[in-house]
Model the fold of this input.
Amino acid sequence: MLRHKKILLGVTGSIAAYKAAHLVRLLVKAEAEVQVILTTSASGFITPLTLATLSKRPVLTEFVKNESGEWNNHVELGLWADAMVIAPASANTVAKMANGFCDNLLTACYLSARCPVFVAPAMDLDMYRHPAVSANFDKLKNYGNYIIEAGFGELASGLVGQGRLAEPEEIVEMLYQHFTDLHIA
Done:
């Protein structure tokens, strides 16, 4: 059910960004077209080369492609996608999305997207439970976005609790279910 679906995958700055490689691989295996947008902070955790190799497309990071004035059109990207997935979604990006801040290519695409948006957060348990972050999740849900709840387990900080990025298989299953439900309806 993901065959030929256009998935815009946003990867943000989180130690869980390494899981984006597996997520891209699963989406491509399901015959989806995957366009990755990597935030500047995410590139400290995973390289554009890794994600470009797996997605078979250049990874986008900035509005401007090169010195010639060529640019990555966030409106076209937002219209191109059948679904947008932000995985991992950092607390910073969740706050930007919830409050309409648009200082990078990913958040500009989010604000331009007409497709369903799936947000898979990853952050330390105290951040995940903070009232400000909870309020931002509520805003995103009220806007019609889907929140893929973080998992429970050992976190990069050494603490144990909720905050782990959902497993890539879970994220793909949610997308599959979404498109299956649309097909049935």
Observations:
- The chain has a mean pLDDT of 94.
- The CA atoms of residues 95 and 142 lie 14 Å apart.
- The radius of gyration is 15 Å.
